[in-house]
Each structure stands twice: as C-alpha cells, then as structure tokens.
Specification:
heteropentamer, A alpha+beta (about 350), B mainly alpha (about 260), C alpha/beta (about 230), B: about 260 residues, mainly alpha, disordered N terminus, C: 9-stranded mixed beta sheet, about 25% strand, binds adenosine-5'-triphosphate, binds molybdate ion, binds magnesium ion, Mop_domain (chains A, E), ATP hydrolysis activity (chains A, E), Mo/tungstate-bd_C_term_dom (chains A, E), molybdenum (chains A, E), ATP binding (chains A, E)
Chain lengths: ~350, ~260, ~230, ~260, ~350
C-alpha cells in the first residue's frame, strides 16, 4: 500500500502545492529551507490540517479528499515526531511512550512492557520514571522518537527527529532509526535540515522550496546534480546555470567555463569546493579555468578551511590550513581561482 | 531553597496583594472578635448544628460532582469548537450568576416545581417532586454554582496549548481519550480553581436553596439557612455557626488542594 | 449634617412587609411638609436592627416584631418608648381554586398535604406556632420559610397546598391566593412598633413622622392595606 | 473552514454539555414564560428602574476594578512565591465565598461600620463612613466577588509556563515589567474568565449589599435589591426587573468579551 | 572585564561542577553530550538558577555568591537565546525583538527601529508583523537570536542557537553571528552540539561530560588531540588510550600500534578515518599497522562513505564509493584494516 499525497494548503500568503508518494519500506526525506512548507506538508498527511484541494490516500483508503472525506488523525495509523517534542508534561517518560499503545487499546502492563523496550532502544531506560521537564533537550527528543515508533504506524512522519541530538548520540540513534525503518516496512516521511541525515536515512530526497518541489531523486543523484543554489549549498557544491556550446559554457550571471565534455543548450555546471585552487597570480596551462576573485569570508572547519570568494562567478573553495597561512587569506585579499576542466560536471538544466 | 530564585517580590505587587488579603480577611477577624466565645460551646451543642453541617457538606459536594459532569464538557464545547453564536452562549452561561439567587430559586420553581414547565411532567409521570427535598437543595446549589466551574475551566482550556491534543490524536487517541488523558491533566490547576469556586459557592448558597427547596431541619436546612434564621433571633449564635462553617470549609480546602495539586510549584 | 427643623431628610428603616404602606406614608408626609424628604430603607427587621446597633445614621425604625425592637432598645439606640402602631392577624392562604381542599387549621396536621409555615425565628412563625397550639393541631409542615414573602411565593406558585400568612399578604397577593379566615386568629396577632432613634440626625422631623404614622391619616393608609389598629 | 479540523464532537462530550446548557438556561425560559409581557412596559417606566440599573452597572464595574487592582497581585503572590502557609492562605481567600452574604455584610459592618474595628477610626480621623453609601455598595460587592477573580487568575498563573518570565528577565525586564508585559497577556483567557465571574457576581450581589450598605433608592438600591423589594409587593415586576438585569448583563458580556479576547480560538 | 564562573549546582542525582572564564571579545563553546549539564551551566550564569556553591562574577562585580549575594537576571546584563526559543506568543515578531530595548528603558520608536534593523540582519524583515506561532521552526529561532542580540548584552549566552536552522541559512546566520560577536566585544558562551559551529565560532572549546570539564583548548588543539571517545567521535578521529614504549603502543582495551615517534608511558593514539585503508587480505610492508576487522555499519555521506568496523581495536574508516563497490562492503564482511605509522599521532594522556 502506497501513500499518495497531493497536497494543496493555503496559509495566509503562503501556498503549499506538492505531490508525494511513499512506497512501503521507502524512506522519503523532505529537505528544504526554513519556511518552505515541510512541516505544513507533514501536518496535512497526519490529518492535523485538512488539505484545501487534492487528496491524501493510502492506496485505496482515502484519508482526505475535499469536500467529502476527512479521516481524523487518530484513525489514520500515523506516528509523528514533532519538531518541539510535545511530550506530555504530566506523564512520566515511560507513560509518555506507553500512551500510544494504551490509546490503541493495549492493556497497561503490555503497553508499559513495550514502552520499556523502546526506551532501551533509544538509551533512556534509566530515565523511565522522570518527568519530561527534568530531561535535557536531547533526551526529550529521544523520548518523542520512542513514543512515535512504539505504535508501529503504517506511516511514520518525522519533523527534524535528530535535530536536538548531539553528534555522538546522533550517530547511534540515526543508525538504530535506520535499522528500525528497514524492519517495519512502513512508509516514512522525514523532514530534516540536515543533508547528512537525509543522505544516510532516505531512499529518495524531495527538495521543497516556497511550497513546491524543486528536485527529487536518490540521494547520490541529488548530491551529484543539484538543480538550485539551495541544493548546491546543501551538498557543498559550486553550482551555476549557463548556456553550453561545445566545451564552453557561458554562465547566466556572468563568467564562463571550459569543460571536458562537449554539450549544447542550457546546462548546470557543478564542481566541489575542494576542486578549486587558489593562487596569488593568474595561472596558465591547458584545459583550466582561472579568474580573479576576492576573499569574502574564511571559516575554519574541522580539517579544512572553507573560503568564500567574490568574483565573476563567485565561488567556494576548501583549502588546507597550510594554504591559509601561506597566502595570508583574510577578507578583501585579491586572488586567482583555478578549476581544472576535468573536475567540472555539466548536466542538462 | 536558600535564597529566592529570582530576587524579592516587587513592592508594586506586594502592596496591593497584602491590601487585598487584608480586605478579604479582616471582616473574618471582625466576626471572630464578636463571636460569643464564652457561650460558644453551649450554642453549638444539639444535633441540629451537626445535622446542618453534614447536610451542607454532602449537598455542596454532590452539587459539585453534578457541575463537573455537566460543566466540564460544556466548557470544552465553548473553548474548542466553532459553534455558531458561541459568544452569546458563553454570556448566557453567566446568567445564574447575575440573577439574584432568590429569583433563581423562583425560576427553578417555575420550571421544576409541582406546576412547573418540566416539573409537572416529572410529578405526574414519575411521581418525582424536587422542591422541599434534599435533591432539590443539590439542584439549587448546582444551578447557582455551575457557571463558576464552566467559566474557570473554559479559561484554562483556552490557555492550554491545543497541539498536545494533536500529538495525542496522532498516537491513536480519540478526542475523548485525548481530552481525558492529556487535556484534563494539563488544565488541572484551572480545574481545581473552578472546582473550589464551585464547591465554596454551593456551600455558601442561601437564596436559591431556601426558595426552591425550602427549609426543613435535617432535610433541607443547610448551614447558611441555619445562620440566616439564627440571625433573626440570636446574632451571636449566627456568628458562631458561620465560624463553624468557615473553619470546616477552610480545613476541607486546605487538605484537598494539597492532595489534588501535590507539590506543584 | 442636621438640617433646620422645618425641613431636611427623614431616614426611616422599615420592615420589608411595610414596603407599600410606608412608601405611601412617606409620600403623604412629604406633601404635608414641603421641603422635607422621607427616605425609607426596607429590609428584614432583624437586619435593620443590626444596622442600627452598628451605628447606622437613622431617624426612625419601624419593626415588624417586638423582639427586633427590643434588640435596638437594649443597645440604648432608641429615644423615648417604642409604640405599637399596627397589628396584623394570621390567615390561611391557599392557591387559587384551593386544589388541596383545605378547610381549616386541622388540615395542617395532614402528612399528605404540602404545608408551608414561617420559621419560628421570624415573627409570623412565632404567631403561627401560637395559633396552631391554641387550636391543638400538631402541624406537619414541609418547609419553614425565612419570611412571609417566601411562604406567599410558594402558595402563589401552587407548590404548597396551604400556608399561614398575614391578612395583609393575602390582600396584596391578589387573585392567585385565596384567604381562609381563622377563628383562632385572635390568639395569633403580631404587633408592629415604631420609635425615634437616639442618634437621629433629624430628631424633630423624626418625631413628626412617627406622629404622622400614628395619626388618623396614617391609620387609614394602614387599614387600607389590611392592618388592624393597635 | 469547510470541514471540522478534527472530526465531530464526541457524544460523551456533546451530551452532558447540552444537558448542562439546558440546566442553566431552562430556568431562564421559565422566567420569560412568566414575565408579565402585557404590562412590562408600564412596570418598567419610572426613573427608579433606570436609576437602579445604572447604579448596579456602575458599582459592579467599580468593584471589579477594585478586585483587579487588589486581586491580581494577590493571585500572583499565591501562584508564584514560596510564602509559608500558602495553602492555608489560598483557602482563606475563599472565605467570603462560603460565608452567607448576609453574614458577610454583618462582618463588614463589624469592621468598617461607624463603630467597627477599623471604621471607628476612619470615621473619627477622616470623617469617612462607608455603610449606607454608594461606596459601601462597591465595598460589599468587591468583598463578595474578589475570591472569584483571585482563584481564577491563580489557576491561570499556575498553568502558565514560568520560563517565559525567565526569558523576559534575561531581556532586562524587572519582575513587574515581566508580569505586566509577558505574564498578564499570556493568562488573558483566565483573567477574562475571572473578571467575568467577578463582575457578574458583583452585579447579582444582594445579601452583603443590603446589610452593609442598606437599601436607599438612587444611592444603594441596586437591581437585586429592587428585585427583592418588588417581590414584596409585585412578583410580576420582580421578574420583569430580573429580565432587564439579565438582558443588560448578557449584552455587556457579549460585547466586551468579543473585544477582549478578539478572534482568538 | 572577565566573566568568572565557578559553578556547583545540584539537581537531583545530577551534579554540575565546573569552572569557566570568558574574556572580553572571547567566544567560548560548551560542547558535550545530551544531559551533560550545558543548559544548567548556562542558566546558572544567566541567574535563572542560583549556584549551590561557588561564585559567578564579571571581574569585581559579583553576581552570585552563596549565601550572601544574588543579582537577579534582569540586572546582570546578559542576553540569552533559549533552546526552545520562548518567543512571546502574544507579541508580533517585531515586538518580541523590541522587548529588550523597551524593558531597558528605550522609547517605543527607538526600540522598534533597533528591532527592525536586527530583523533585517537575520533576514526576517518581511515577517516583522507576524505572530511567532505563524513562523516556521527555523524562522522562530532566528527571531530568538535577534531578540537576544539587540540589547548588546555584556555576556551573551546561546543555547544551541543554530540547531533549527537549515544548512543554507545556517551558513549565512553563522557568519553574521560571527561578525557580530567580533564586533561587540562582549563575552560569549555558546552551548552547541555541532562541533562545526563550535570550531567556526569559538576561540576556545570547553568539553563537558557528566557535569564536569573533560577537556578545553583552542578548537584546532581539541580537534587534533581529543582526550575522550566523545570528543574523538565529535571531531571524526579514531582515538585510543595505551601505554607507549619506544615506537610501540599497547592499547588499554586490546590491540597495539606501531607509531613513528618514540614515546614512553600513557599516551593517546589518534588518526583520522581517512587514514584507514581497507583490504580483503592482510597487507605487508614496513611501518604499517594491520589487523582483522568486521564491517559493523556503513553510512553514505555526501562525498564519502563512513564504515564502522568491529575488531581489536574497533575503528572508523572513510572510503570512496568506488571502494564500497569493489569490496562489496556490507555488515558482517571480514576485512583487514591498515594504517600507516606516519599517520598516527600520539600525545601524552
Ligand atoms: N498558522 C499559520 N498561519 C499563517 N502562516 C503560517 C502558519 N503556520 C505556518 N505558516 C507559514 O507557512 C510557511 C511554511 O511553514 P512550515 O512550518 O511548514 O515551514 P518549514 O518548512 O517546516 O520550516 P522550518 O524548517 O523552519 O520548520 C511559513 O512561511 C510560515 O510562515
Ligand atoms: N528540573 C530538573 N530536575 C531534575 N533534574 C534535572 C532538571 N533539569 C535538568 N535535570 C538533569 O540535569 C542534567 C543536565 O541537564 P541539562 O539540561 O543541563 O543538559 P544539557 O547538557 O543541556 O543537554 P542537552 O544537550 O540534551 O540539552 C540532566 O541529566 C537532566 O536530566
Ligand atoms: O417584615 Mo419582616 O421583618 O421580613 O418579617
Ligand atoms: Mg518545520
Ligand atoms: Mg540543553
């Protein structure tokens, strides 16, 4: 049974208009900037917000179809992890997790049993008796996760389920979440900001901007061939639109590139920041692109330094700390950027 | 805790709150000062006082239960649904509050009395007659006290975040389960406040009770009725009875509230 | 602030059962004494007595029972001696058509009939007890009301089959209530007393008003309402 | 919205809430059925009715303001500080509720009367005397109505998340500013509920008023007192007066609440 | 004026006991797993929680010193961004930001002016009139950021200020936050889960575990020489404790390494996952470590694949997708891990 959702929702000046399908066992990640409508889409699928037009159905079981059908959330068999947890403050952690099984008719002992085993899975068995207010932010998020998963819903909706977890716990919970998703065979819709979470957990990524789908596909495909600036920044690629003619691409916003494979018509041009070399003087040599730039911004990452460069076109470069010292990189410094033609990917726009 | 978590109470709050407290409590001091202490014991012997006190507590508690059963759903309806004319309904709920209690009693007689709109059928078909019975006392008290519960609970419901009900729904809870297991506990402070108001108002009810249920010792003579009648002949006894009523009600409230709201802040 | 004797305000505290008559008397007194206003505060006699004892600035007190007047006298709040200015006799009141087929005081001992009486603490209740005792009836009332008005309401609405109220109340209630005169009523008469008060802001006018209540004109107003002369 | 956001109202809520609503409103229907419609106009002419109505509205509103000024800080004190004996204090606040209003009036006389504990000094030193004045009506109504405000607001405060006050403090807000600009708006539904209860209770107040302030037309005769007097002479007029009081109060509440709470859910 | 905080706070079974100093202009990041006590420390500095022992002071201005001194938060001149925003629901976005200046005595017009300029900085000028409830999660977080920064506090406390921001906005807000921190010269204490945020924004990183400081230092220093597993995972290094003797280190939990520089006594051994080679057979050759491992977990990241390997010792390896395909990596697969001795760093434990 496949989840089909054709969602149109109007909220003030904002309009959400997108179509989604999620197959059994499939994990679809909804990725998009703040305010893109990810949470709105998730609420519409959960039944917390009726759609204004369109349809939500699980195969032949119609959940929402104006103006006739509207199945309330408690009869949809969905599990939701909310962005700000929404744990019940008056119940203990264990009772929070046992709430779903209880509400679906399980007896108290059985529900607690189930809840306890889930708390173990998320590593919080020892906090079972605590109140949500006494939990740290990350602990609360893990309880919310357990609470949604314990009912083994047909559709699992996760709104930034890992956002509040720290790096070390995240690794663990992410992989155990991955295992569980693989196990239960349901349909998962995952809203996240973190491209890594999406890449690791999702079978398919749907990129939403301004309430609309701008790109979708397998994680590797999206990562390799971003179609908007947002996606490019997300996956850490330099991305430009241009018009190809042979091995030359004239960029829409100024600048030109020489590429390895000849093409024609509108194309995307992409290359990773690590492919960019920085030099104090212009560099010569066959199939190589080189143009003057100015340092806008320097950020030290764990192992590399990312340099934002203004120019025609602007570009991101990843360099080693040694290069930073050698070139005395600091905002305002004029340099030359160079990219080998073989490093530049082009694909139809 | 050793030191206050957040500095001292500001004067602008402390001053009026103390004046307010004094305003509510000094009259009580006046009563205590005037109480016939020397003869208090002898004035309070006799079975009537105990009888009236027991009747008062019983009827007020039953009336409160009735108000909870009918009033909490009503409050929910007013707070959480999109009923047309909700604003007017909400205002109409306050009617028994504004009505002078004696008129309220008359209104109840007009409806539930032996010849009342509804009462005549109750009487003819089921042989049930509420006036002059203990059940009538409960009905009169509930009528007068219910608005307090409804309005206080509605206010609490409006202040509660409805997204928790949404979370419960996604966990499979019907509206009823979500209401009982999520909403109700989260509005507990407001509900307790409303219940206290309701119970206390029912306990102090006089006008509607005597008009609708009459006054017969052991059956419908609650403490306020006893107090009122004592006032006619023996103000000292009336004050003594009032003090008994107050002590008992304060004791009940102190012990119950501690149990209901536990160690909450 | 006391006004000159010729005019000013007379403040009167009067029992609630005197509402109609004292309103009328006040108007007539004002007509007869231009420049004088009569302000009457009606309430239960004992409540009024408490207010006077606690220092209410009143000129005249008209009470519905000797007991409540005694409270004021004991507090030394009265100047001179209270005087009885009217009396009221008990009567059986039944709803229009007499559905309970009540004929006399004997029916008050019937368990099956619904009977209302005044509570013994209020004057009409004391009078009723006296009447029933002298008739040798062991009454089986269903309710002991806080005042005559409450008893009358129950009769008017048909909630009780019979009750004992004052003759004046039966007259005032009009068509909805029927009265059955009592032979024993001679034994169940209630006195109404009036007095000027020691701390009267306007003692002269107070005395004049009391005199007016007890005058021929006053008595005729009271008689029209069904009161007996003292 | 085209369809309800979350299904229908469950029967378990709908049924009792409708019974509750009927219970509160049917007596009103009884009054309306008995109202002397044919002579209603003539019974309500004369300046007294307008006078009493105006006095009622004025005094109830002033009493409500007094209750807000004194009661909201008191509620805050009870909800947010660690006063010793807070539980007992909270129960004591309900005292005027349990006290039969007439006894409350007597208590006020004992304290604020010309011979009262406090009143004698007010009278001797400042020449102020509250009983039998319009100010006395306000005091009596405030005394009876304040507990409703205090308890409802305290309930709302307990349900409000104190961390928002913390956030305000870190932004430089004193407790007073945080209270006024953060807490107060966030408890608005509860505060409105409490204010409505308080105002309505003050409007319907009878026993304490007639005892403490007397019954002087134009000065202290509020609508409930006028109703009481009318009942002595003309029950039809009493019902008519009650209906006027109800219509006006419902109208005021409907129009004010819509303004106060706006389009909130 | 330096912020000195010696904090001891007891919360039930949890005890926080740490000492912090923050110099003017300095940004200190508090990094630690869920429940480590980061938020608790921040609340103690803000004055929202009195310390049970110790002292909080800004140079000579004592803020908290039991049992005598306690300065309430509104007189401490701190700005706080809370983990779950705590925006005032009844005020518009603009009024939320203007709240601080207003509370500190600025007139309405001036406060709004300031608020508006800050909303522009965080890219939300067009949402000024909205209510917080109508904001998306990330928008709300940015408003909270603006609200805390607008009062230009002497001490700025941030509890996961960037956690809810999406990747593209994050880059922008992070760098503008960096600029502002550099500008205002105050003391900043930043709680975060994200080592990248800490590395980029902080001058010094303090690692907290179980309520205590386990390591602190400059970001590069911490990244290079982690002292606990948590820190190692955080910065993506393999870390072990062992006993060195010459160029051999015997690991505490089993296994041994040959290293380039001779050492003696207890040491930490660290190397990046990218230094690990994976082979189907044992590999020979001079100074090289090689041992049998089994694949436990494979995670696809944007450009590389991270493989978790069980063995003696267990190890993380970063490999290219090509290697994954070639070796048919999947859980349970037995392999040989190899690390060149020159890639292994040792430093005293
Ligand atoms: N109740 C509401 N009324 C009006 N507009 C709303 C409401 N709720 C959300 N919006 C608007 O709808 C748009 C989409 O919001 P949504 O919460 O779905 O975004 P999101 O993609 O989840 O963002 P984030 O990643 O920041 O959580 C936003 O522009 C938001 O301002
Ligand atoms: N009110 C409280 N009562 C009892 N224990 C509490 C309370 N608040 C927090 N704790 C406990 O104190 C510890 C530290 O919590 P804190 O919120 O400071 O962690 P944190 O480092 O901020 O974690 P996170 O990164 O998940 O937000 C936790 O173990 C938590 O359970
Ligand atoms: O007239 Mo009275 O004092 O109510 O019996
Ligand atoms: Mg969202
Ligand atoms: Mg935290």
């Amino acid at each position: 049974m496949t989840l089909h959702a054709a969602l149109r929702v109007d909220r003030g000046t904002f309009r959400l208009d997108l179509t989604l399908t999620v197959e059994p066992g499939e994990v679809v990640a909804l990725l998009g900037p703040n305010g893109a409508g990810k949470t709105t889409a998730l609420r519409a699928v959960a039944g917390l917000l009726p759609v204004d037009a369109g349809q939500v159905r699980l195969d032949e079981e119609v959940w929402d179809e104006p103006p006739t059908v509207f199945v309330p959330p408690e009869r949809r068999g969905v599990g939701v992890v909310f962005q700000d947890y929404l744990l019940f403050a008056h119940l203990s952690v264990l009772e929070n997790v046992a709430f779903g099984p209880r509400a679906r008719g399980m007896d108290r002992a059985g529900a607690r049993e189930r809840a306890r085993s889930w708390l173990e899975r998320v590593g919080l068995a020892d906090r079972a008796a605590a109140r949500p207010r006494a939990l740290s932010g990350g602990q609360a998020q893990r309880v919310a996760l357990a609470r949604a998963l314990v009912t083994e819903p047909a559709v699992l909706l996760l709104d930034e389920p890992l956002a509040a977890l720290d790096a070390s716990t995240r690794l663990h919970v992410r992989s155990s979440l991955g295992h569980h998703l693989a196990e239960y065979g349901g349909r998962t819709l995952l809203v996240t900001h973190d491209p890594l979470d999406a890449m690791v957990l999702a079978d398919r990524i749907v990129i939403v901007e301004h309430g609309q789908v701008v790109q979708q596909g397998a994680p590797a495909e999206v990562a390799r061939r971003p179609r908007t600036d947002y996606v490019a920044t997300l996956v850490g690629l330099n991305l430009y639109r241009g018009l190809a003619s042979g091995t030359t691409v004239r960029l829409a916003d100024g600048g030109r590139f020489t590429v390895a494979e000849p093409a024609a018509g509108p194309v995307h041009v992409a290359f990773p920041p690590s492919a960019v070399g920085l030099h104090p003087e212009p560099v010569a040599g066959s199939p190589r692109n080189s143009w003057p730039v100015t340092v806008a911004d320097v950020e030290q990452h764990a192992h590399t330094v990312r340099v934002r460069l203004a120019g025609n076109p602007p570009v991101l470069a990843d360099v080693t700390p040694a290069v930073v010292a050698e070139l005395r990189l600091s905002p305002g410094r004029p340099l030359w950027a160079a990219v080998k033609a073989t490093e530049v990917i082009t694909y139809p726009a | 805790m050793r030191r206050p978590t957040r500095g001292r109470v500001p004067l602008l709050v402390a001053l009026p709150s103390l004046v307010g407290l004094a305003f509510l409590l000094v009259p009580l001091v006046g009563l205590l000062a005037r109480a016939p202490w020397s003869t208090l014991g002898t004035r309070l012997v006799g079975p009537e006082v105990g009888q009236a006190l027991l009747l008062s507590l019983t009827c007020a508690s039953l009336a409160t239960v009735l108000c909870l059963v009918l009033g909490v759903p009503l409050a929910w309806l007013l707070a959480r649904t999109e009923l047309p004319g909700r604003g007017v309904l909400r205002a109409l709920v306050t009617v028994p509050l504004v009505l002078p209690p004696v008129v309220g009693g008359v209104a109840l007689l007009l409806v539930l009395g032996r010849r009342g709109l509804v009462g005549q059928y109750l009487h003819d078909w089921f042989g049930v007659s509420l006036p002059f019975t203990t059940a009538g006392v409960v009905v009169a008290e509930a009528f007068v006290a219910m608005p307090f519960l409804v309005i206080a609970v509605e206010g609490a419901l409006r202040a509660a975040d409805p997204r928790f009900e949404e979370a419960a729904a996604t966990l499979g809870a019907t509206r009823w389960v979500a209401f009982r297991r999520v909403t109700l506990p989260s509005i507990m402070p407001g509900l307790v406040a409303g219940t206290v108001l309701c119970w206390a108002r029912a306990l102090g009810e006089f006008g509607a009770t005597i008009t609708f249920a009459g006054n017969f010792p052991g059956r419908t003579t609650t403490m306020p009725l006893a107090v009122y009648l004592a006032l006619e002949t023996d103000p000292g006894a009336a004050i003594a009875l009032s003090i008994v009523l107050l002590v008992v009600s304060v004791a009940v409230l102190v012990s119950l509230r501690d149990r209901w709201i536990g160690g909450a802040p | 602030s006391p006004e000159p004797a010729a005019g000013g305000e007379v403040v009167v505290f009067a029992a609630a059962s005197l509402t109609e008559t004292f309103t009328e008397l006040g108007t007539r007194f004002e007509d007869a004494n231009p420049g004088t206003t009569v302000t009457v505060s009606f309430g239960g006699s004992s409540g009024l007595a408490t207010q006077i004892v606690e220092g209410a600035p009143v000129d005249v007190f008209a009470s519905a029972s000797p007991a409540t007047m005694d409270q004021v006298v004991e507090a030394d709040a009265v100047s001179g001696k209270p005087a009885v200015f009217a009396r009221n006799a008990l009567e059986i009141a039944v709803p229009a058509g007499n559905p309970g087929r009540v004929t006399g005081l004997a029916d008050f001992g019937d368990e099956d009939r619904t009977i209302a009486l005044c509570a013994e603490q209020v004057p009409c209740g004391a009078a009723a007890r006296q009447a029933l005792a002298s008739a040798g009836v062991a009454a089986k009332p269903d309710t002991l009301e806080q005042d005559v008005r409450a008893v009358l309401t129950k009769v008017e609405l048909g909630e009780v089959d019979a009750a004992l109220v004052y003759h004046t109340d039966v007259l005032a209630a009009g068509d909805e209530v029927e009265g059955i005169a009592l032979p024993e009523s001679a034994a169940a008469v209630n006195d109404y007393l009036v007095a000027t008060l020691a701390e009267a802001p306007n003692p002269d006018r107070a005395a004049a008003f009391v005199a007016f209540v007890r005058s021929e004109q006053g008595r005729s107003v009271l008689a029209d309402a069904g009161f007996q002369a003292p």
